[in-house]
Structure formats: C-alpha cells, structure tokens
Amino acid sequence: MEAAVNSSKEAYKSWSKTSLISKQQIMFKFQNIIKTNMKKLAESITLEQGKTLIDAEGDVLRGLQVVEHCCGMPSLQLGEALSGVAKDMDIHSYRVPLGVTASITPFNFPAMIPLWTIPVAITCGNTHVIKPSERDPGTCMMLVEMLSEAGCPPGVVNVIHGAHEAVDFICDHPDIKAISFVGSDQAGKYIYERGSANGKRVQSNMGAKNHGVIMPDANKGNTLNQLVGAAFGAAGQRCMALSTAVFVGEAQEWMSDLTKRASELKVNAGHVPGTDLGPVISPQSKNRILDLIQSGVDEGAKLILDGRNLVVKGYEKGNFIGPTILADVKPGMRCYKEEIFGPVLVCLSADTLDEAISIINNNPYGNGTAIFTNNGATARKFTQEIDCGQVGVNVPIPVPLPMFSFTGSRGSFRGDSHFYGKQGVHFYTQVKTVTQLWRETDVTHSKAAVAMPVMQ
User: What is the rounded average pLDDT for all residues in the chain?
Assistant: First the structure.
C-alpha cells in the first residue's frame, strides 16, 4: 500500500504539469475504450456482483457519462479575473490540484462509482489511489487497465486492495490529501471523522431511506411500474433505491395492483436472459435483510408479498430474496428506520401531502425522494418544502447527470463538496488567487545607451 502512494506521489510531479489538453485527449480515448468494451465490463460486474446484465450495462453507462463530462475539463476549471481593482493592480484566481487523492468504493456499483472519482480527480491534475470493494474488485482493475491503454502515465492511478487495514491506511497517510467514499453509514462516518481528524478533505456519501410519494391524481399504471422498478431493481442494492412508498389519500387503494406487478418480476442468476432481479451480495447481507423483514412483521406491519423462501432452481444455495412488500408500516418500526438495502419495499399511508412531507422531513436521511402527480402546484409545493438533496417529479431515481452533481444531504452525506459536476471539480482542486501590482510610473521611456559603459 505504501508503494502505491509513493508511486502516485512521484507521478504527481510530472502529471500536475501536464497540460489540460493532454489530459482531455486521454479522457477521449478512455471514453472510446469503455464504449468498445461495454459488454465485457458488464459481464465482469454480473459475474462478481450478481446484478443482471442489462443493469450492469447501466452501471457502466452512468460512469461513462462522467468520463464524457470530464472530456470538457478545461472549461470546467476556468478561473476568475478582475483588472484594475485598484490603481495599477489586478487580481486573478485559478484552480490547482491537491496532490495525491484517494477513493474507497462500494460493491453495488463496481464501475459507476470508480468512474465518479478517477476521471474527475486526474483531469483536475491530481494522482489517485483507489480501493475498490474487496467483494468485486475485478471491474475496477479492468477500468484502470483501460485508462493505461488510453495513455495515462504509470503511477497516476494506483489500486490497493483490502478491508479495514486499507481504509485506515488511506485515512492516516500524510501524503493523501482528499478521500472520496460511497458506502454504508457506519463506514462513512468512521472515514469522515478519521480522515478529517488527519486534516484531509472528505466527501462521504452514506445510507439512505428514499421515499416515493404517490398522489391519487398520478398516472396509476406508469407510477406503479416506476415504483416497482425503482424499489426492486438491482435487488434493492442502490443508495438511491426508492425503498419507501407513501400512499396519499385514495392512492392507498393501489396496494393490490402494486403487489401484482412486483410478484411478476423474475428472480434468477444475473446472466440468465429475462431476469429482473439477481441475488444480493452475500449470505450475511441476505440474513440481515431477512431479519429486518421479520422485525417488521413482529412490530405489526403486514407482509403482503413475501420473497423470503424463494429457491432458484440450479442455484439453491444462492443469496436470493424475492420482491417483498411490507404494508401499514409506521415510522417507529425498525424496518423503516434502517436502510434495508435489499428487494424490500416498505409502505406507509398519509391522508394529505402535508402529512407525507412531514414523514419524509422527520426521517434523518436526505439522499433523494420523488413524487408522482399530474398536478404542477402539488409538485412545486413538494419540491419547495421537502428537505432532501435530490428530488424527482415523476422520476423515481433522480440521480443527476454529470453536468450537475450528486447532492445527497442531511444523514446521507458528510462533507462540503459533492461528487462529480462542478462540486466534484471544487472537491479535487483548491483556488489560488494572485494579486499583482505593476505601477505605470515604473515604465521607462529612456533612450537606449550606446556609449561605453563605465563603473559607477
């Protein structure tokens, strides 16, 4: 691990001086190589992580969009200038890299999250050390190889592997100036506190409990399809999964239709054609999800769709859980308070939009939320009053495209600058401001001396 940092530190000496245009050209080549190998990357994700091939391609595509955005990095790093701020005085500011940076990425998006960090960090002039999840590191390794093929010099990006020891190494090493993290609450809080205590910049994107508010005037068929896809896609293993539904007023009568749609989803190994949900990541994860489902039943929720005893032929020992729906859930229940991170949708009821907004704002998380309605005034009220960083209107998973930034808030994020977009550029750079004084009276107009010079 020490060798990785030393390599990045040495590479920074020349990489920080490499022109933005040269870095841009590498990104263009990297973009093309990823596109060419999209299927290969998706197959690697499915093999290691278990998600369906079509979902794995989406994983790569959303990361590729960040690479494409970084192809325009010269314009994203424009500084500011003011001439004549005082007599004969000018001021200009520009962005400079930090040095060696690092990221710690999760298992659920083994392509997208590394591509949230590596392209932004290195096109901003930094070198980078990445620790992919120990559960599925293969895709990250492939991406780093592709980056090398695109012309990125040795040492600019280094990969280290491991679990707790590797995390502590990144948090403690004095040459690492900034850390990006995406993952669980416990790990995110730990990394933020330990890294910050060591004087590092940290952006830590953590857990979530994303609510979807279903208004009775919404398009019923489209809304239920969107809800099912956002709740159960990727087996619910998304930090932006719409894992909680709040049915308002007459929309509470839609539960049976919701259950029917969810029950029709096909669960199988991710590489099998027609599969909608693959397995969850590990036996430990499966057991935790099952425990949270049972806690809901024990605390009075209604289990209207039970996916706990699902057996997939040919994969009897797989970590499979079918779509599961808990109804009549109350905010005090454990299945509501904790992020389940599995194919489980918890459903609450509200009489009014104000009540639904209150439920969401009282939840500690603030990653994202969505409302389904055909009323513009209702949508505007919701977006104005809701306390979440990312809001969708008839969009179930409102993850912004890279020209914006991923802006989770409250209990879902710790740090000052968010991932990718302008926020990402700010995170991976610091501003240098130069104030210059060149007095006009210092300009000389004397005639050139042609006589033999003498000692004075």
Answer: 95
